[in-house]
Amino acid sequence: MSQDLSLLDTPEEVENTEETQQPVEIEEHTIKMAMHLSLTVPLELSGGNILANWKKFKQKYVNYKIATGISLKDSATRVATLLTVIGNDAIDVFNTPTWDEEDDDKKSDKVLSKFEQYCEPKKNVSYKRYKFFSRAQESGESIKQYVMILKKLCETCEFGTLKNSLIKDRIVLGVNNTKTRERLLQVKDLTLEKAVDVKRNHFQSVCRSRKKVHGLDVDQQEEEQNLNSTLIVGAVTTDVQIYNGECYVKLPVKGHITKLKIDTGSQVNIMLFKDLKKIVGSNPQINACTHNLVSYSEDKLTVLGTIKLPVKSKTDVEQELTFHIVETNQPGVLGFTSSRDLGLIEVIMANKREEDQTKPNRGKEAKKLSEELKEEMLQKYKQVFTGFGRLEKPYHIEIDPTVTPVVHPPRNVPAALRDRVKKELDDMEKRGVVRKIEEPTDWVNSMAIVEKPNGSLRIFLDPKHLNNAIKREHFQLPTIEDITTRMANAKWFTKLDANQGYWQIPLDEESQLLTTFNTLFGQYCYQVTPFGITSAQEVFQKRMSQHFSNLEGVETDIDDIIVHAETEEKHDHHLQAVLE
Questions:
Q1: What is the pLDDT of residue 436?
Q2: Which residue stretches belong to region Disordered (predicted)?
Q3: What gap in Å lies between CA 69 and CA 72, rounded to an integer?
């Protein structure tokens, strides 16, 4: 059955058939069907996307009209039927005296045209095209987000068959990386698909400066870092040009020769799922993975899990390596650490200062905080080490209005976990982390649950779609080199960890509603900055930097606060200043 969304009568709808030659039987059949069919959802004109509401109503009504036989009736009957099911909001529009001729309100095509014009917003095509052609890729914005925004912007530009071609041209002009633009311009017969692939596969070649320093002592904090940690993949690319200086090696992995790319810019090892099946069989047992892999352009690479496998180099050095398993068409990757440990690469220090810093006896110069001072600080500043604090200024999450909100249904929770999930939600509510809400919201996210090794549960937000709409702060995060340079002469150190760091930043009321998530027990929203949103790391680092920037001998790296000094006396003074 054709589902033409136009409600205007067509010759096909009134075409004579064998059935239309028996009017009495058709009439009886129509009455019986109408008794069983009803269009219970009226046209919603008082809120939301009116044009989208109209399109959905049209799709439902055209099927209703055909199924009940209303399409065979005269125009006045069709109008009466439409007004019966369309709802009170639309009746008010119908009663507005804007008809061209006296009997237009009884003509089906005129009535439908009136509703069409009412629901269709006034278009300024020139302005829409201006918005499209002036949109450049923002700093920190992934290619996936950029393309999605361009596609959204061009929906009302009336580009027709040129749409994909113009999006491709806008990507070339709008990318914020000069080298990527040069690569795009070198591609023969560039299409939108090729442009996206080139940009997505332009992976960062050096990632050491972005690696985070952790080292938490509490299991719960370690798990929080794992859940939100991001590892940088230096290069997983379809390009194997010689000028890129790419090196490949064939090594026995559990006895099977496997081709891997040596990538000193990657923090992890990567193996293709198809290669893994050749090594361990068609049903490999892999472990769950809690971190993401991201590219230079911030695109995430889906990880199926991790597995440890023995790898032997040509120098007979054997190591048990952890591989992240993915499904791509690119070669596997051997990261910096594994390549070095297998003797495949040699690290040559650039100068004597770097060489001196790597000497084993250098670490022995660092002085340890005395147990007496440690206990004294814990007692004197007991309130600082209890619970989690709150910064004064609430954070307002900026949203891109061109991104359509997404509403997720509640995820199913195993019956065995439901009581424990409810208990954890109640505890988070008592602590002021979340609150229950009743009002409708545009964004509704999913709830994710992780069971910790000690058997307790951790509930967190899964803002997969919300992250596509969040505008990031673009705050420059400190690098390891920046921090270590400023601590070069220090001998006394203390590292403090901000407990539940992101939760220390409250959200304003509007932003709280953006974090709404569905549960089997109703809807909740966060009152504090949740783990997982794309802007959380930069916002937290910015607040930490602002808070401690005027203190000497203090470095901040996300939720780590490092106090350092050349002497014990200075160190203790710096530490007290931080705790004050």
A1: 92
A2: 1-22
A3: 6
Classify 324 as helix, strand or coil.
Answer: strand
pTM: 0.38
Q: Is 152:405 a contact under the CB 8 Å cutoff?
A: no
Helices 125-133 and 143-153 pack at an angle, to 10 degrees, of 170
Residue 15 domain-assigned? no
Helices (H), 314-437: 336-341, 352-357, 371-380, 415-430
- Distance, C-alpha 247 to centroid of its chain: 32
For residues 289 and 262, membership in a common domain is answered with: yes
Side by side, the strands of the sheet bearing 554-557 are: 492-497, 560-565, 554-557
- Residue 72 belongs to what domain range? 26-119
- Sheet strands (E) in 452-498: 457-462, 492-497
In this predicted model, what pLDDT tens digit does every residue of 115-136 receive, in sequence order? Answer: 777 777 655 678 788 888 988 8
| 325 phi, psi to nearest 5 deg | -95, 125
| Six-digit token string for 14 | 């009134």
**pLDDT the model gives residue 517:** 92
Phi, psi of 319 (to 5 degrees): -135, 145
202 found inside a domain? no
d(CA 460, CA 23): 63
Domain co-membership, 427 together with 574: yes
Which residue matches tokens 């009886």? 28
**505 near 537, Cβ under 8 Å?**
no
Nearest to 69 by CA among 30, 101, 36: 30
**Which burial class, exposed, middle or buried, applies to 451 when counting CB atoms under 10 A from its CB (0-12, 13-18, 19+)?**
exposed
Q: How far is CA 543 from CA 132, 405, 473, 560, in A?
A: 34, 28, 11, 13
Domain assignment of residue 371, yes or no:
no
Contact yes or no for 418/505 (Cβ under 8 A):
no
Give 506's DSSP letter: B
- Which amino acid, one-letter code, is at 272? L
C-alpha–C-alpha distance, residues 530 and 539, integer Å: 12
Shared domain for 111 and 148, answered yes or no, is no
Residue 209 covered by a domain: no
SS3 (DSSP) at 58: helix
Residues whose CB is less than 8 angstroms from the CB of residue 442 and which lie 6 or more positions away in sequence, other chains included = 405, 407, 513
Do residues 461 and 538 both lie within one domain? yes
Residues 103 and 145 in one domain: no
The number of beta carbons lying within 10 Å of the beta carbon of residue 552 is 11
